[in-house]
């Protein structure tokens, strides 16, 4: 059983990873990726000649170009990515926890509410993205219609960097809260009810029970979902791409959309896209390592 697993991991994970790292040290692009250039002849045959512009090893040149701002807007995208990730994960966890606590109680129609709150998770991300983009439309979107009804001016959501990112964050909250809610609800149901009964008999207030029983009991689940949520949000391509489209003028791009544009727009620069990928992976590996170290220092097993 070990050998097939190693083979699958090698084919699906390690080979693409090594290939991507290698490409980040080359100048591979759409024009030089082929070793030969073939043309059709009048007789229906094909003549192939060596490509005079083949990809070459360029060392750290791609990293230098990206990190110094010679190519792209790396530091703007990096700042956007950090702000986007922090905002989304914070709201995902906070709202998800609140809903999980509410649904953990017995009340009429609880099952129906659980189903309804999971619906956003079941809808494809690009469908939700287009729906929310319509809601934030300046001329006929529901958000601006509501602002007008309360006497406020309509907002050009996608004409400014932070309002565009705000629109994307709201969309991603809609998509991400159900996962957090389900995971935390499972964690809540694993906490023994005897602990709450004992605390109530000792005169503990609801807040004291939440702080001293609920939150500590959720630590193992919270540690996992926060890490997963951070990784997913950091690389959440469709929301930024479909909701803001990078507007205005690329000001709302994040790192993963920057990688996409390097690979598939203009002269497709696969080496720059690979460099973006290596940088993104490095950041997430460093974060995951620091996060696990912090949890170990706090006595958590993860």
Automatic annotation (TrEMBL):
Its main location: membrane. Belongs to the binding-protein-dependent transport system permease family. Pfam families: BPD_transp_1. Gene3D superfamilies: MetI-like. The keyword Nucleotide-binding does not apply. It is found in: Cell membrane. The keyword Transmembrane applies. InterPro entries: ABC_transporter_permease (IPR051393), MetI-like (IPR000515), MetI-like_sf (IPR035906). It is a multi-pass membrane protein. One of its GO terms (biological process) is transmembrane transport. GO terms for cellular component: plasma membrane. It comes from the Bacteria. Keywords: Cell membrane, Membrane, Transmembrane, Transmembrane helix, Transport. Residues 78-291 form the ABC transmembrane type-1 domain. The chain crosses the membrane at residues 82-103, 115-135, 162-185, 221-243, 270-291. This is ABC transporter permease.
């Amino acid at each position: 059983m070990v050998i097939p697993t190693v083979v699958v991991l090698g084919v699906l994970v390690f080979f693409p990873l090594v290939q991507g790292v290698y490409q980040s040290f080359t100048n591979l692009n759409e024009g030089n990726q082929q070793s030969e250039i073939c043309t059709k002849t009048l007789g229906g045959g094909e003549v192939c000649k060596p490509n005079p512009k083949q990809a070459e090893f360029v060392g750290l040149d791609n990293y230098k170009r990206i990190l110094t701002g010679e190519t792209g807007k790396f530091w703007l995208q990096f700042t956007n990515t950090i702000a986007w990730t922090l905002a989304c994960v914070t709201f995902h966890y906070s709202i998800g926890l609140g809903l999980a606590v509410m649904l953990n109680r017995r009340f009429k129609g609880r099952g129906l509410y659980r189903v309804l709150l999971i619906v956003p998770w079941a809808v494809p991300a690009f469908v939700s993205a287009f729906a929310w983009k319509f809601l934030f439309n300046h001329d006929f979107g529901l958000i601006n219609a509501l602002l007008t009804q309360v006497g406020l001016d309509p907002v050009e959501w996608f004409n400014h960097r932070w309002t565009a990112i705000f629109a994307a964050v709201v969309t991603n909250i809609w998509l991400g809260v159900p996962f957090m809610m389900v995971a935390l609800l499972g964690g809540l149901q694993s906490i023994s009810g005897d602990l709450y009964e004992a605390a109530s008999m000792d005169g503990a207030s609801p807040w004291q029970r939440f702080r001293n029983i609920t939150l500590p009991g959720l630590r193992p689940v919270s540690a996992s979902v926060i890490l997963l949520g951070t990784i997913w949000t950091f690389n959440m391509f469709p929301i930024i791409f479909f909701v803001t489209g990078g507007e205005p003028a690329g000001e709302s791009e994040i790192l993963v959309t920057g990688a996409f544009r390097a690979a598939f727009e203009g002269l497709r620069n696969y080496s720059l896209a690979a460099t973006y990928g290596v940088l993104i992976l490095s950041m997430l590996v460093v974060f995951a390592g620091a996060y696990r170290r912090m949890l170990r220092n706090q006595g958590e097993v993860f």
